[in-house]
Amino acid sequence: xxxxxxDVIIQTVCRILIPFIQVYGLYVIAHxxxxxxxxxxxxxxxxxxxILFCVAYDINEAKRRLSEKLxxxxxxxxxxxxxxxxxxxxxxGGNYLNYSRLGRILPVDPVNARSLGILGIEIGxxxxxxxxxxxxxxxxxxxxxxxxxLG
Amino acid sequence: MKPLALIAVLMTGILLLYGTIDMPNWGDPDSPASIxxxxxxxxxxxxxxxxxxxxTSALADYxxxxxxxxxxxxxxxxxxxxxxIRRPRK
Amino acid sequence: MTLPFPIxxxxxxxxxxxxxxxxxxxxxxxxxxxxxxxxxxxxxSSIAILHMVGEQGTIRYYLGSWDPPxxxxxxxxxxNAFMAVIVSxxxxxxxxxxxxxxxxxxxxxxxxxxxxxxxxVTGLLGIVxxxxxxxxxxxxxxxSLAGYALIAIGExxxxxxxxxxxxxxxxxxxxxxxxVGYLYVVTGSLNMADLSTILPRLYHSKVVLMAFAFFxxxxxxxxxxxxxxxxxxxxxxxAPSAVSALVAPLMTKVGAYVLIRIIFTVFKxxxxxxxxxxxxxxxxxxxxxxxxxxxxxxGQTDLKRMLAYVLIAEVGYIALGVGLANKAGLTGxxxxxxxxxxxxxxxxxxxxxxxxxxxxxxxxxxxYLHRKMPITMAAFTITALSVxxxxxxxxxxxxxxxxxxxxxxxxxxxxxxxxxSSLLNAILFFRVIENVYxxxxxxxxxxxxxxxxxxxxxxSMLIPILIVxxxxxxLGILSGKIISSIIEFAVPPGL
Amino acid sequence: MELIISKYNYxxxxxxxxxxxxxxxxxxxxxxxxxxxxxxxxxxxxxFVSTGAKRGxxxxxxxxxxxxxAHAIQAAHYVNPLPxxxxxxxxxxxxxxxxxxxxxxxxxxxxxxxxEEDEILELRK
Lengths: 151, 90, 495, 125
Fold this sequence. Notes:
The complex is a heterotetramer.
Chain A lengths: L7 H23 L8 H18 L2 H7 L2 H24 L18 H32 L10
Chain C lengths: L4 H22 L4 H26 L2 E4 L10 E4 L1 H28 L4 H20 L3 H20 L5 H30 L4 H7 L7 H18 L8 H7 L2 H26 L2 H7 L2 H21 L4 H22 L2 H31 L11 H4 L1 H15 L5 H15 L3 H26 L21 H32 L5
Antiparallel strand pairs in C: 1-2
Chain D lengths: L1 H5 L1 H19 L3 H22 L30 H31 L4 H8 L1
Helix pairs in contact in D: 2-3, 3-4
């Protein structure tokens, strides 16, 4: 077990750095339309921000901010958003995942409705990928016993 | 066991190489792959989905169902890790 | 307005799988009924699709309303609908019977077990229904990943067996992906129907030849065809009983379906029979698989391991039917997919019930089991007769068509081996039945039999076993009707 | 010789793939098998992405000014996006398989305290 040093330098640097990582992750998700990026890359960056927090502070500290239960809910929430959008397109009369049907409920023409549908998909994927990265990291690192911390 | 593995590896490698003889050269613009299906993605994406990034439009719209399957794959991995390793707090 | 059935089969179990972790935190007991409801919805919609296909012929469903070569499409003809009904029906029955054994083996992890159970079934249904090569790879990966995890939670040897299964399964999936890549480079499209129109011009190009070879190896690995079956006995023996009852009948059959789809739909029979003797090689491999499976099954004392080797022999039957590449052979193969799914489901459910109730695995310790569990052992005997191929049961009819196919293909050696394997199966199963029903000779000197109370498996396990046994018997009688209404059209043209 | 020059990307991916394939089936240690699996899958991703390349083409993001008439977009100017889309899926599949494989290895180490295949086989008997 690595002796957990209360290292002030690492913790203050992380405390400053992590918000910018998360904003950059949101930027990558949101700008999937115009620049390389999208749900997966943005979700991984958000997950990496949280993993940095786990490494800098102890896992119990991190679990106070994002509990095990909330993490599992986020995992399924992203996918529910994704298939929910597909399902609303189904309900609105199109085939599954046909975003142009969203134009009926959103005040946009079918082409921009597709663009909004893609943005909704990216958000759903981003949430799921972030939650999955955090959940797999916490499980693999602490070998299942979260309360014992890293290593 | 090791020489057997070596033979299997060499045989697969030779078969794969034999398969690449008829393939188009690297990067030539009129190879079948860049003529048959993908031109429509590039030319029509702004017109149909108002998304300039062709990869994102192909990923989330033209082949959006693949991405749903992909996200389900990563969701399965998360559930598998929880099922296999996580120990309930004694 | 008609419900969009093709997508309902996949989406309902998928969305339920997402809700189960959330519901599981809130109230654990709600997961099991949710799984049953989701699977029964997909059973109903797959039967409705089979009905619609019967009337209108092939159904095409464009995902995202993009037309085929650009978007992903679902193509459902007789073969797809038939497989979808088998997969969803058997997974529903296994889900019903899994309640007790899961509660005993994995008390805290029921929520995540059922989530992965549903994801595995969704993956299998996704493979069966899709008409796009890459989409098939994605759902193949979902099904196998859920399979690796479910098998790894079994008894002592399970994690190592699942690790080996993962290595072989990943090699198989990557070979499949590589072949899709080889076809993509030369044709430019990923859609099955589109490929089957472009490929005839390229039948003599080396790339297509290699793509076909690696398809066969990749799918053979997933389907545990003879030389590539090394991972199967350990994986299915150490898996928990509910998981082996789900994976054994379905995973290999879906692999066989993909093999049929590649050999006869993507590559026209003119390629797989005439240009390269793929089907003759396949039939020879299948013959060795049948012999290998039956002979090795003789040597096993653990019932589950014996059934795993019988499963390898059954996969050999299907591959033989495909290898014969004539109408009778292929009808036998497709009918055998149905029959074998039923038989393997019933056998593994019976083994699960025995393990749950008595905890015995060694075949020799099964004495007087017919008194303790009369109904379960009766079901075991009927299924054993079906595996051997005795007329009233369904096993006979698929073997009958295989023999017919072998004779019409003029392969007398194959017919001889088919009959020999039935004999080996007979020896195999009668050894077990003899242990169960008849006292050994040396026990006659003892006093009267001590009174054994009937201690039958719980109801939630017994009903699925009875349904499957009734299925085995009734489908045996109805097989003529099944062939004329479904399999007649499912057999690819041009054979 | 011309065959090798004009098709060298296929040679590279095959060599990489065979190294990974050998490690997967030849090596005894479980973690080395996993490293081989990673090389094996990365080689396939390299193959797919190299099929999409076009000489003299830019990244597949279509520049179009808002409002002014967009000049006709030729497909030859942009790289073929489809392999990139497929490989996003393959990368995610690789990561997920790796996560589950590491989870299984942790279970094995917790149970047998070794990662050598032959030692595990003996302990299991």
